TrEMBL record, chain A:
CDD domains reported for this sequence: fer2
Any Pfam family the entry gives: Fer2
SUPFAM superfamilies assigned: 2Fe-2S ferredoxin-like (SSF54292)
Lineage of the organism: Bacteria, Pseudomonadati, Pseudomonadota, Alphaproteobacteria, Hyphomicrobiales
Family from the record: Belongs to the adrenodoxin/putidaredoxin family.
Keyword Iron: yes
Known cofactor(s): [2Fe-2S] cluster
Keywords: 2Fe-2S, Iron, Iron-sulfur, Metal-binding
Protein name (Swiss-Prot/TrEMBL): 2Fe-2S iron-sulfur cluster binding domain-containing protein
Species the sequence originates in: Bradyrhizobium campsiandrae
Record-linked InterPro entries: 2Fe-2S_ferredoxin-like_sf, 2Fe-2S_ferredoxin-type, Adrenodoxin-like, Beta-grasp_dom_sf
Segments traversing the membrane: none
Domain 2Fe-2S ferredoxin-type: 3-106
Automatic annotation (TrEMBL), chain B:
Record lineage: Bacteria, Pseudomonadati, Pseudomonadota, Alphaproteobacteria, Hyphomicrobiales
Record's signal peptide: none
Family the UniProt entry places it in: Belongs to the cytochrome P450 family.
Domain of life: Bacteria
Protein name (Swiss-Prot/TrEMBL): Cytochrome P450
Organism: Bradyrhizobium campsiandrae
Amino acid sequence: MVSIIYVEPSGKSHAVNVEEGWSLMQGATANGVDGIVGECGGSCACGTCHCYIEESRFAELPAPSAGEVDLLDTVAAELKPNSRLACQVQATAGLEGLVVTLPATQG
Amino acid sequence: MFAFDPYSPVVDADPFPFYKTLRDEHPCFWSPQAGMWVLSRYSDIVSAGQNWQVYSSAKGNLMTELPNRAGATLGTTDPPRHDRLRGLIQYAFMKRTLEALADPIRDIARSTAQALRGKDRFDFIEDFSSKFTVRVLFAALGLPLGDEQTVRDKAVLMVQSDPHTRAKGPEHIAAYNWMQDYASNVIAERRANPQNDLISHFSMAGIDGDRLDEREVLLTTTTLTMAGIESLGGFMSMFAFNLADYKEARQAVVANPELLPDAIEESLRFNTSAQRFRRCLQKDLTLHGQTMREGDFVCLAYGSGNRDERQYPDPDVYDITRKPRGHLGFGGGVHACLGTAIARLAVKIAFDEFHKVVPSYRRTQEQLAWMPSSTFRSPMLLELAVH
Ligand code: HEM
């Protein structure tokens, strides 16, 4: 299990134990975290699991695929340098304690 | 001795008691009848779906695979090939692209529903859902009109399996071959006269400068037609089945069609029409004390994960206010359904229009004839009586 801290749009934060190998999207939807939709089920096809990664740790993540970069251009909330699609980031031991902030809208 | 046989008509009719025993007592179970392991808990299925490096789809994802299909379609390839193939098709099924289809879908729904006016009983499948789904899929894929009924019948046959031989029967293979010939004619026609539609683009596309393999073009087109028509029609009959039985849910969505999306999600969870898919292990793996070997097949029982009390409280209660996020009705991970957006859009519009003509209905038959299929679950006939 990897502890991930999700900050909902309301500002409320949840520390969730996410199974290693699950995506940050699955960790959120399976544990009742608000502010994330994940309409396409994690196949990188919808852009409704947009999140902001803790800035100081952004560089620890593997780079996004071309498909993710294309979809990031379509997200509903403001695109920031630390934006990612949560379905494309896997929870790994190295990400213990990562803070993931969810935008006000997913469109 | 507990047994789980996905070919048994008893499982077609009601897999849920078996799933409960699987989850509680045998979370990693070898089924000799299926010739594969069965994973039944929500979290194990999510983990497996996420881990395509170990749980590969390249040897086929249907529980009873069709000959020569594995390796040539989205559902039967692994990344990176899978992602490139999907990249060629995905745009056509994205929510934004589909907005243009909303009006045509509504017209189809309206005219199909109108034909039910005045009837006091009818078969929901024959008289509504199959007519609606073929026309919607033909519009979405840009297929030439004319053969809709035959295409639908073959799509439904090719996903079935024979409960006695536990394999595809000659009639199922014949339907599959028919569908390949059909797809091959459409592809040839579109190459000769390209249109601005999915099959024209796809049949002339390439990956990294290489033309797609002919088998990929053919089987992907064949599978899209099958997956689109059978999965959408099958789910619609399960949704009608739930709304016929749960009167309060039906009254709520009839009174306020804005509730349809929540009801659709709950039916995807509660009565998962795409019950079981399979993967092939790429290395030995020990789970819940069982060691599975490289090369073994593993069934991901989405229909069971969706009823797992470890994830959903009171899982056997149908509750349209539940909002079951993260459900497995469309699978999950890289292979999550390509058709989620069109399926949600089409089902919502279909029931909105259907309810304008038939707002109140019930099932006439206590026992339903269930489709013989190791992968999908839906009734063959769903007669409804209008109140
Ligand atoms: C409510 C209706 C539908 C349901 C319940 C459904 C269910 C599913 C499920 C569970 C999977 C995952 C299979 C696996 O894990 O191996 C899947 C994959 C797929 N579905 Fe659907 N489906 C539906 C409608 C559609 C439609 C309308 C289309 C096409 C127009 C479609 C095309 C596909 C394709 C191409 C895949 C493979 C995706 C990949 O592997 O990347 N489906 N579907």
